[in-house]
């Protein structure tokens, strides 16, 4: 027992004299650093510049809307009416109006001038009869600035005053020409009598008539046509040249046959 007590006291003494270690504090993992590259890549917009760009886009948009509105009016439109349609002032658009060749600004009004200057049926007929070529007039150009182009073309076609070429897909008019040949569908009597007096040979006579004028009917098989055989010409044989070349020409006199 005394031995055990001595060992216990000795162990306690060593424990009291042992150095005391502090608790290790575990620090939380550091947060990832902020990516400054993304912020650097994003350009900081200048509020003044951004407003100017927006104003420019808005100005161009209003100009396009104004053009479409003027095309449908077919008459001069006052600045006041145009401002009422756009719900914005027209003053910034006036320089654009003056630079456009299809717009005419006069006395505080704007007028859209079509490409061909056609606005009625009479204008269209006069324009067609002034043409010096037969290439036709595009309906797309007629519709530019003339809303009544399609119904007017339909009426003039019904009256047979113009000739219309239509698209196959939707049967919409594509080109128009003036009808300078009179009423469509009528044939002069002299052409009718000429057609009736023309005699068409029968099927049996047709091959002979074609051969008389030097033509061949398409119904005849080309292999059945007998062609005249040309007399064979006799070919003349050319004298054969000696294959070997004589080199001992100095002995021609000795080798000559005197018999």
Architecture per CATH nomenclature, i.e. the level-2 architecture of the domain at 53-112:
Orthogonal Bundle
Low-confidence stretches: 45-56
Instruction: Fill in the CATH topology of the domain at 53-112.
Output: Arc Repressor Mutant, subunit A
Shape: flat
Strand order of the largest sheet: 1-3-2
- Approximately how much helix is present in the residues? 40-55%
Per-chain topology:
Layout: H1 2-17, H2 36-41, H3 47-73, E1 77-78, H4 79-86, H5 94-99, E2 103-106, E3 109-112, H6 121-129, E4 137-138, H7 139-143, H8 149-158, E5 162-166, E6 173-178, H9 189-197, H10 206-212, H11 252-255
Antiparallel strand pairs: 1-3, 2-3, 4-6, 5-6
Overview of the structural elements:
This protein has 259 residues and is mainly alpha-helical. Among the domains are: 60 residues, Orthogonal Bundle (Arc Repressor Mutant, subunit A), CATH 1.10.10; 58 residues. It has eleven helices and six strands. The strands form two sheets. It has a three-stranded antiparallel beta sheet with strand order 1-3-2. Strand 5 and strand 6 form a beta hairpin. The radius of gyration is 53 Å and the shape is flat.
């Amino acid at each position: 027992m005394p031995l055990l007590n001595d060992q216990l006291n000795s162990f306690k003494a060593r424990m009291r004299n042992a150095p005391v270690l502090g608790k290790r504090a575990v620090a939380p993992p550091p947060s990832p650093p902020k990516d400054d590259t993304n912020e650097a890549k994003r350009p900081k917009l200048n509020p003044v510049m951004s407003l100017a760009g927006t104003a420019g886009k808005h100005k161009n948009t209003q100009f396009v809307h104004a053009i479409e509105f003027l095309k449908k009016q077919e008459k001069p439109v006052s600045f006041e009416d145009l401002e009422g349609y756009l719900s914005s002032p027209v003053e910034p658009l006036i320089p654009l109006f003056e630079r456009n060749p299809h717009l005419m600004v006069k006395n505080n009004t704007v007028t859209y001038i079509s490409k061909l200057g056609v606005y009625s049926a009479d204008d269209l007929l006069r324009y067609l009869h002034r043409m010096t070529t037969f290439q036709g007039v595009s309906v797309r150009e007629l519709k530019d600035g003339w809303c009544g182009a399609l119904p007017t073309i339909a009426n003039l076609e019904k009256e047979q005053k113009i000739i219309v070429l239509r698209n196959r897909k939707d049967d919409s008019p594509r080109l128009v020409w003036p009808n300078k040949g009179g009423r469509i569908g009528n044939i002069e009597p002299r052409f009718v009598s000429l057609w009736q007096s023309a005699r068409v040979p029968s099927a049996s006579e047709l091959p002979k008539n074609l051969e008389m004028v030097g033509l061949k009917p398409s119904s005849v098989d080309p292999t059945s046509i007998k062609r005249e055989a040309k007399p064979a010409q006799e070919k003349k044989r050319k004298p054969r040249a000696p294959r070997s070349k004589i080199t001992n020409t100095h002995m021609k006199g000795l080798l000559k046959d005197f018999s």
